[in-house]
């Protein structure tokens, strides 16, 4: 399991969050948001990186036709707005709170650069992390454009295995305890919640998986499919 709190054994939140650091803690506050509040919009100045402290944050953009494309739904411990580290001057996506009580830790770019300089090993890992996320988002957009809905769902389940999965030592099935609702799963693969429910039931009837509200179990014979 690759926990989202840890990337290659580095705790992003503990290293990056100024609340964890004596020199920054006194003058630093979490930003709180209600459900559907925007943290930033497309075209806003990219002057901060953020860490999710609680709740969920949706990252996406709006096409020229007015369609909303969701790239990620992030939960506690995850980083967003990271393209500002690479010199992005304005946002090309929006960030929106999905739950009441969502709070994020904002880190200014000067603070971020200081932290990266002070943690050289971590700086290499955070850049690798950014590259990994770009590849992941690129693959998801390719799936949205070129694959049918069932294939998109199976591919996304494979991503969930990497992020949230662990092996049942008795059955050798992969158990995925994830934070997404069916509506959020549907949003991430570009379909409707009823369609996701139908497809999950199809995959269950085929013996590919079993599922409930917060858990998907990929059967051993299909674990690498």
From TrEMBL:
Domain (HTH crp-type) ranges = 147-222
TM segment ranges: none
Q: Where is the Cyclic nucleotide-binding domain?
A: 12-91
Q: Does the keyword NAD apply?
A: no
What keywords tag this UniProt record? DNA-binding, Transcription, Transcription regulation
| Record's keyword annotation contains DNA-binding | yes
* InterPro entries, per database record: cNMP-bd_dom, cNMP-bd_dom_sf, Env_Response_Regulators, HTH_CRP, RmlC-like_jellyroll, WH-like_DNA-bd_sf, WH_DNA-bd_sf
SMART domains reported for this sequence: cNMP (SM00100), HTH_CRP (SM00419)
What is the designated name of this protein? Crp/Fnr family transcriptional regulator
